Amino acid sequence: YPKEVINNHVTFQVHISERLPEIIVSDPWRLRQIISNLLTNAFKFTKQGKVSLSIAPHENRMNSDGTPSINIEIKDSGCGIDPQFQPHVFTPFRQEDNSHALGRTGAGLGLAISKRLAELLNGSLTFTSAVGKGSVFSLCVPYSLPQERELNDTRNTTKLPPSNSSRSEEHTSE
To answer: What is the pLDDT of residue 56?
Structure first.
């Protein structure tokens, strides 16, 4: 992740479930944008502790047509979001006091855009947060498995990292 976002006191962990297929059909650009926005915020508001990215099948959610869903969770141990501001988190151009933002601020569009992109993918973006404890943002989107013809056309496929017995990674910035 970009060095200007990661600081020396934050551990970054990644866990990808072995129960996911290696390739899924979805919109890789929208998924990448949402994940990037969520990770940028997680690092921006975490002075020390950890940020984690977990990707797993959503056990209890299938679309009416039986399409499975993937759950992408970004969790941080940052400053958290004030309960009074939480109803406005996805409102464009609305920002909570940025005194915890490690000197970096934005326009207040990242979460609003991410929520809209999740909806365009027929998914959802939700969160829980507690001041002083951090936040957890959960993206749940449907996916399908590639058909033979789609394996050769990678525009709408997302290749997940290879499966092995330990798909969890941990990185601490230098």
So the answer is: 92
Report pTM. 0.78
What SS3 state is found at 56?
strand
Cβ neighbours for 23, distance < 8 A, ≥ 6 positions apart: 145, 146, 151, 157, 158, 159, 160
Q: Mind spelling out the 3-state secondary structure of 116-145?
A: HHHHHCCCEEEEEEECCCEEEEEEEEECEC
Give the span between the Cα atoms of 142 and 3, in whole angstroms: 32
Nearest residue to 168 (alpha-carbon basis) of 13, 6, 23 = 13
pLDDT 10s digits, 62-75 = 566 678 899 999 99
Cβ-Cβ contacts under 8 Å for 103 (sequence gap 6 or more): none
Q: Encoding tokens for residue 51?
A: 């940020």
- Are β-strands 134-142 and 124-130 bridged in parallel, bridged antiparallel, or unpaired? antiparallel
Residues of the chain with pLDDT under 70: 1-8, 60-65, 93-108, 148-174
The answer to whether residues 52 and 75 touch, using CB atoms and an 8 Å cutoff, is: yes
Query: Cβ distance 55 to 174 under 8 Å?
Result: no
Dist CA 88 CA 66 (whole Å): 33
Q: Which two tokens stand for residue 155?
A: 């525009």
